[in-house]
Amino acid sequence: MNLTGWKERLFQRYLIWSCRREKIRRYLRDSLPSLPLPDPVDRRSVRVGALQVKLELCKSPIAFADLVHRRVKEAYEAGARLVVFPEYLNLLLFGMLPGIEELEKDYSTGIAAIAKNEQQEQTDVISLPDLFRFMTPAVQPLIFTTFSALAASYHLYIMAGSYTIADQGAIVNRAYLYDPKGELIGYQDKIHLLPVEEEWKIKRGKIFNVFESALGRLAMPVCMDATYFETFRILEERGAEIVMLPIANLEAYNYWLALRGIWPRVQESLLFGVKSALVGSIAGLTFTGRAGIFAPLELTSNRDGVLAEVDCFDNEALAIADLNLDSLHELRCSHPWRDHNPALYRRYFPQVYKR
Amino acid sequence: MLVAALSLAGVDLSSINGYISGLINLLTAQKPVVAVLPAHSALALGLGVGRLNSSNTFQEASAYYFAEGTEWTSEFLNLHGLLAKELQIYLVTGNVIEKDEDLSYQTCYCLNPAGQVCCAQRQTHLTRFEQDLHLSRGDKLDLFRVGNFYTGLVIGNDARHPEVGRIMALQGADLLLHSGAIEGDQTCWQQAAGMWAQVQQNQLYAVEAQLSATIANTVFGGNPSIIAPCETTFGNTGYLARCNPGEPLLCAELDKETLSEIRNDNPLLKLLNFDAYTEICGSEPQ
Question: Which CATH number fits domain B2-280: 3.10.20.600, 1.10.357.140, 3.40.50.300, 3.60.110.10?
């Protein structure tokens, strides 16, 4: 089935209309609080919140706005100055598609074919990349308006999570960052893709971005990017202090499997890591994870590299911790083992990175 | 292929005969193809048998060894060459001092079953203490064959630098042999941040020898482990075997076929994005 027939085009127009900025802005204006400005940021105690979001289908843009508003409020009330949402947050918006429950059944039974982006003749299943593309014109204004308004109302930095959206013909997995004025500071495209994302023809990012903020230098690689030390080494060398990592792990939860991402990267590159997780099921896909906040071993009381981590891997939760950026800099300057060997890297990396 | 990691816990370090017979007893019982000694084995034995001056602190003992330990190093390597030949194994010596013209390195040797050096690996990343001793960094990472495994040596502090494992993995390494020593008795997270992390992001095996001994009033309490990609291990822990405190030797069987399967199922290194890495190809730190 393709999504270019007149009915589909008409429905897409309806989606765009229902997610239009004016409508969302008006709704949020009536529901968001007017709050006093917070105290200036103390670099010795930057409170951050990592959200664990349960995957639930939002039937309308207002339902989505309400959900993310509730989670932002929760983090604000816990004292966070930075709130981090997870990867693939656009999956929640699939709830706006009519007949999504039936579609889910098709996906659940034919997921192997979908993963390969094969159209199944007998069930006529729409591919996920087609859906991402179809929904982009509606999703983008909705998330831009919602997170901008929330950031401005609560005076927070918000990493809005990542979204698979169409950009100039290609699909990217893109994370967005907003400042307390509600301005979009920037975005980050996922640079290392899962095999299934390669098959979906998602376009890989090429640049690791670091964003200046009142909270320190922020970065936000996406999920699989933390499998590779190169991501964090480049961010470290670019001056990043707090690295946010939105994840949506498609595997049964296991402590050791989950440990392989941001935790070792934080130890290798001496940064703070804030991991947000999407959990729950949709279309036969089950996501697990535990949101958490990580630091070099030397900066954690148990010497285990964990400042905070939620208890569950399949439900809504929030991890909160205070980051001391001055301590991080002191550690970097006096670290007992951290070293750099440019001669070694020059000898090998140009060769081995071409193979 | 059966591999072994040693901690030297309980091994007699006060006489060369006691040390050699202790290792022979341990290794003869298990018959590994490869055995890895922990870091500072030469220093610990040299102090124990009186070939090196005794000191009150580890720093003093190390400084003396790096300055004056050439003769003892030669004796230590000869001794282990004979041991490798006697046992018909590949034996990794742990770090010893190597002088080359005006420069000093911490170097680890692998001795083959003929008792000869089949790989000499200089440490490529130095701790602050090692920098203060004016040691130099190696700038090569070579592989050698043990059976059908392409193998590399990882010394001490190099375990905490992922560049080392990545360069070796992209050159084709299947197995890393690590000689380590960590101060203190709570080392599990430091070890996880080292070789365990290198194994998981490079999909290879590692034999991690960790020193369990006291040198000049400094306690080293790491536990040897044999590490594999999580998916290939019981409970997905990434550990094929882990030593309990006080155990001198740990063995496990490595299977090249299992490694190939996990690399095919989840080809991590094929998903690297080389285009994005140009700035870590040898830039100076900011």
Answer: 3.60.110.10
